[in-house]
Amino acid sequence: MDANIQNKAAQLDFGRRVIVREQGQSLAGKAEYSSEKRRRLILFLQNLPLRMKEMLNKIKEDGSRDMKRPDFIWHLLLQSFSTMGNSRGWQGLICNQSNYRRVTFDALSGLSEDDRLRRLTTVLHDAKVRMPNMKAEQLNENYKTILAMGGLERAKEKAFAQVGTKAKIAFMKRFHGIGDKYARNVWMDVYHPDFYDSIAIDDRIKQITEAMGCHFASYDEHERFFLDIAREANIQGWELDRLLYNFKEDFLQILKR
User: Taking the model in full, what pTM does it have?
Assistant: First the structure.
């Protein structure tokens, strides 16, 4: 077999079509190697250390609490924009109460549109949020979108009235700057029941996929791959998503052994 031929299709034991990139190995050898890493990952997930279980419980509690907030939509928009492109903005905006209090929906309500945009721009800069000028403009538009919906509580009612995952994702995509990834992640952040069986494919999870020697042609195939792993490990897709995101380095080490 020509060792230079890349991206050959292989059928792995979990019944999903993946593209395996060969690196000087036979196709069969590479498939077995990926299958072994998958088995190792599942075994670890079935025997999670206490610190990971405790983390899962904490973020479930935090998410359930956030879901009850009257300012649910605005808070989750701020949270999304703080991490979009670089997670350091989380510490500067969400965790720094001095900054956060200046951009709550109520804090912005008494300002003119120009002053509101100026306030958002200043705080995002202070919080070290990536692309602060662009995000300030988008948040300013989102503020107006929420007002047009009837305010915070009415916007929340409309969001929760959406039936199923697709409708909830579509609703969040009405907001400026929110694409597929963050429209899904908003609901996953609050541990919404509709998203217990979901994986938000991002750069961190893609690194895990790469370490397993696999590549997927579509988002759906990629998500199904990890959902199959979650089911075999007897955990939720949501739980696997949060574990891979928060403990990426741990899992990369497991896959390197």
Answer: 0.79
